Amino acid sequence: MTHILAIDQGTTSSRAIVFDAGLRPVASAQKEFPQHFPASGWVEHDPSDLWVSVAGVARAAVEKAGLHAGDIAAIGITNQRETTLIWDRRTGKPLHRAIVWQDRRTAGLCDRLKAEGHEPVIAARTGLLLDPYFSGTKLGWLLDNIDGARDRAKRGELAFGTVDSWLIWNLTGGRVHATDATNAARTLLYNIVENRWDAEICALLDIPMALLPEVRDCAGDYGTTRADLFGREIPILGVAGDQQAATVGQACFAPGMMKSTYGTGCFALLNTGEKMVASKNRLLSTIAYRLDGRTTYALEGSIFIAGAVVQWLRDGLKIIRHAAETQPLAEAADPAQELLLVPAFTGLGAPYWRPECRGAVFGLTRNSGPAEFARAALESVGFQTRDLLEAMRADWPDAAQGVLRVDGGMAASDWTMQFLADILGAPVDRPRVTETTALGAGYLAGLGAGLCPSPEEFARDWALERRFEPIMAEAVREARYARWQRAVQATIAAAG
Ligand SMILES: Nc1ncnc2c1ncn2[C@@H]1O[C@H](COP(=O)(O)OP(=O)(O)O)[C@@H](O)[C@H]1O
Ligand SMILES: O=P(O)(O)OC[C@H](O)CO
Fold it and tell me: Closest-lying ligand to the alpha carbon of 183?
């Protein structure tokens, strides 16, 4: 048994990668699945699409690698976080579509809880804020809106889970109802200081605790797969939310190390060591990973629109056909024009947390065209990351010294990464392996199986592909960032 199977269940697609014992990718498979938008601001996934796509890509990746189940020592799971599911423990049938992390339907409930003054206590215990992003209010909505669900939940008939738990349940044939500490940390129901479900917060949200999964370490025993899935049972030995798995995959094991993943959104995590740091600047505190019962914490900045702004250029404005076309366009943009885009398409995330905001463009002239829009779109990703870094520097002064490790689809854009280094005034490091999320899950499973080396040794193997050094003059950098900050304030003011 020489290989590891990593499953990465993301917001728009499911991926599986087979790694060899040296954590080199050997084969992979990917499948997109439908998104459902039943009302404005609502986003849902069909639970069976999640499970069926995962089972399909997992089998396909093993087959493509020319391997058999007997060659796979362990499975690691990583997943889109916060997305909320509820199912019947007896039949395994979901009671509703999954409510996706992007879904804003519980904004009213969050406002009410904030007005009642609950946010400080919730933040101190969970590290999170009262935003519809997290699972707790989504689960409350499901219990309020599915006939008889709360009573059935009280009787212990139902199970709640984030996507990891749903996959573990299905992989094990309903034998294991568990989650890992990083996914639990995104629910709004988990006390990350004491490492337990928080009974008082559950009571506040009227969530029966009989619904909740057992919380385990990131490298731990999550049971074995049903024998019929792969031809024999395979142990599941690693689980982490995707941004935490990327933190592990980027080997950000020392306090002060930071990674930023540029996919649909952007999520920056700063390792803060074994003590939870409470943010004074509207960042989230979260669990980076829990190994052998020891928790390592992180500060997180979450931006909802990063690569999605490039998708908007392609699908909305239709000024590009492929994401990579943004680079030549940005290079060709008129340097005399100062088009600035605040891509608050679904509100602003960290550090503003203004769900009511919508996007804005500043500095339009009659000469503004596709090239200027492409440049403004790519630059918006850099400006938003600077906002996060400013908040991190204020919370944790060491963050200022750090190099930023980047990954995700948009990290492929050299132009964007150079602008990022320029506007941050800090080096940006892109690793050789950019599939860091799957790598992190694979590493955790390999650790569980005793196949992979210690975190220190794994960190030594992290290999740089390219470093982007800041070259923009300090005065230009600061003037441009100040203009961005004014644009954000104007965007917030316009939302009323
Ligand atoms: N060369 C590129 N330049 C700019 N953006 C890119 C480039 N390649 C991919 N992207 C963006 O990266 C995102 C895909 O990254 P990925 O990590 O696969 O995202 P996710 O896991 O959220 O689906 C898309 O939004 C796409 O627009
Ligand atoms: O699936 P991704 O890569 O868009 O990541 C989603 C995040 O986990 C949401 O918090």
Answer: 2
Ligand 1 atom with least separation from CA of 327: 3
The answer to the question of whether 311 is labelled as a binding residue is: yes
Among the atoms of ligand 2, which is closest to the Cα of residue 186? 10
The answer to whether the complex's ipTM is over 0.95 is: yes
Model pLDDT for residues 41-92, shown as the tens digit of each residue? 889 999 999 999 999 999 999 999 999 889 999 999 999 999 999 999 999 9
Residue 10 Cβ inside 6 Å of ligand 1? The answer reads yes
3-state secondary structure of 143: helix
The span from the CA of 279 to the CA of 259, in Å, is 18
Ligand 1 centre and the CA of 378: distance in Å?
A: 12
Check: CB of residue 92 under 8 Å from CB of residue 35. Answer: no
Q: Which ligand is nearest to the CA of 101?
A: 2
Q: How far is CA 162 from CA 87, 99, 101, 187, 240, in A?
A: 11, 10, 10, 8, 11
C-beta 323 within 6 A of ligand 1:
yes
Is 90 exceeded by the pLDDT of residue 461? no
* Ligand approaching nearest to the C-alpha of 327: 1
b/e map 177-198, b = 16+ CB within 10 Å: bbbbbbbbbbbbbbbbbeeebb
Q: Enumerate the domain spans of the chain.
A: 3-242
> Tokens 């339907």 belong to which residue?
105
Q: In 3D, which of 316, 314, 333 has the Cα closest to residue 324?
A: 314
Region 421-430 average pLDDT: 95
Which has the closest alpha carbon to 265: 314, 311, 302?
302
DSSP state, residue 314? I
Q: If you average pLDDT over residues 457-471, what whole number do you get?
A: 92
Tell me the pLDDT band of 400, cut-offs 50, 70 and 90.
Answer: low
Phi, psi (deg, nearest 5) at residue 237:
-125, 0
Name the token pair of 342.
């605040």
pTM score: 0.93
Name the CATH superfamily housing domain 3-242.
ATPase, nucleotide binding domain (3.30.420.40)
Q: Is 11 annotated as a binding residue?
A: yes
Return the ligand 2 atom nearest residue 261 CA: 3
Q: What separation in Å is there between the alpha carbon of 488 and the centre of ligand 2?
A: 24
Q: How far apart are CA 453 and CA 436, in angstroms?
A: 17
CA of residue 35 to ligand 2 center, whole Å: 14
Ligand 1 and 32: CB distance under 6 A: no
Specify the higher pLDDT residue, 431 or 448: 431
Was 105 annotated as part of a binding site?
Answer: no
- Which residue has a Cα nearest atom 1 of ligand 1? 324
